[in-house]
Amino acid sequence: MPLNQRWLFRVSSHHRYGRGHIARCSVLAKAMRDNGSKIIFQLDPGSTGAAERLKNCGLESTEKNLLLEGPWSGCVIDNYELLGDDISDYTQLASPVVIMDDFLNPPTGAHLLINSAFHLTERKISGVQALLGPAYALVEPRFSNIPRRDFSGVVHKILITLGRTESPEILINILEVCDVLTDKMDIKLVIDRCDPSYACIIDKKSDWINNISIVSDVSDMLPLLKDSDFIIGSGGVSLIERVAAGVPSLTILGAENQRLSIEGAGISGVTIDGTRINSADLLPRISSILEDSKLRVSMSKAGRELIDGMGGNRIADFLCSMVKC
Length: 325
Fold this sequence. Notes:
Layout: E1 6-11, H1 20-34, E2 38-42, H2 48-56, E3 60-62, E4 74-78, H3 80-83, H4 88-93, E5 97-100, E6 112-115, E7 124-125, E8 128-132, H5 141-144, E9 157-161, H6 169-181, E10 186-190, H7 198-204, E11 211-215, H8 222-226, E12 230-234, H9 237-245, E13 249-252, H10 259-268, E14 272-273, H11 279-291, H12 293-306, H13 311-322
Parallel strand pairs: 1-2, 1-4, 2-3, 4-5, 5-6, 6-8, 9-10, 9-12, 10-11, 12-13, 13-14
Antiparallel strand pairs: 7-8
């Protein structure tokens, strides 16, 4: 167990960044806390929702600049705006510097890079030591531990979860496609009230033929995953969660930092890579997936085999070993 290790987590936490950064860092932080480390999150200004979610996990956070309030045993940075700048202050005051890097482009001064894209196997990126691949997927173990299900039957329940959407067009297109598949489909859409597309979707809700339920401000995705036959979702943490739970899916690019993860997931057979599917091809592609029970069963099986829910523990143990006690 680490002796008096004290780690700073600097994370993109404002709602404009979505929830993924906080979600994956909280998994790691809890594993490190359970190892005996003291964890403090420094959040973006105006991150009330993120602070509340961390508090519910028993994790401490503040919007105050903490870098000078060391000593620090190390820091974890999951913040693209910060990574675009000089991180020498963090290297000097909070080494080792650990980077959550979805682009595989570590800044000068980083000591460790983490990226759980499914097809990555390297041990160094641009000379920086790296923990790569699904063994380091930051997802809570309970997602991997749910009972296995049979996905060979007819799809009745579709979950749509695209994270934060700056424009409603792609979301409306997906809803329209799902609406014409059948009139007996139970469709749930996860969208936060603070999402820029929320008002537009609410206005169009009465246009749908199917029973489309809107679920907002979800604090726990697991019950929704357990109740879904198929998911249309974005990359990022939500992809990791549904793969761990073994729910077959089509994955749409929600933000550029998701591209590598989606590519790897498609190569590994745990989801259908939808990054190259245009709007005209969306209906036939989704229809073919829903008709192909063998494909859906294969995705579920592959996902359950790749992610065991222990990624946070593996990274926590490694970070502890990096610190000279």
